[in-house]
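Closing statement on the coenzyme A sub-project.
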Amino acid sequence: MIKAVYPGTFDPLTKGHLDVINRARKLFSKITILVAHHNEKNPLFTVVERKKMLADSVKRMKNVNVDSYDGLLVDYAKKNNIRVVIRGLRAISDFEYEFQMALMNRKISPDVETVFLVPDESFTYLSSSLIKEIISVGGDISHFVPRVVNKYLKEKLKKES
Ligand code: COA
């Protein structure tokens, strides 16, 4: 039984993230999607909202659960007996940052391995910031995010306007 954690800010979850989750859940017995607080990024959604959107989007996936954490990723992994960190690689431009993070995590905790998964090529151009930019000027993002996220984004914008 190999457990894995897929960490990220998920502000918001996109179909690209979901594609990575779908690939990971076929490889590992249990996947925890870990919402990082990441306040430096000044997220649009609170941790509670990001967790809710994720939980709604993966509710039919039996071996996937959602959690949040505000400390070191490898500490969370250790505490929960998880030895694999999943990260998605969309393009070469992701590589340097991901490589640095994987090596830093290994330095802090040599038992934790990072596994990179490549999302479907139709999602390689997606990012959460682009989604937020498109919706803020009234664009349609329904092709890029799960239905539940689309609903949340629209409600958030309505509240803020
Ligand atoms: N589909 C669509 N977008 C994707 C994607 C995919 N498959 N994979 C990554 N992205 C995008 C995200 O949407 C995000 O876009 P944005 O910058 O426009 O918001 C960007 O790529 C990177 O986001 P994410 O994957 O969420 O990573 P992150 O850089 O926000 O988060 C953490 C990195 C949270 C995993 C990392 O900082 C961490 O582990 N923090 C905990 C503290 C810690 O242990 N720090 C030491 C790390 S060495």
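The chain has a mean pLDDT of 95. With this model delivered, the sub-project is considered complete and its resources will be redirected to Aim 3.
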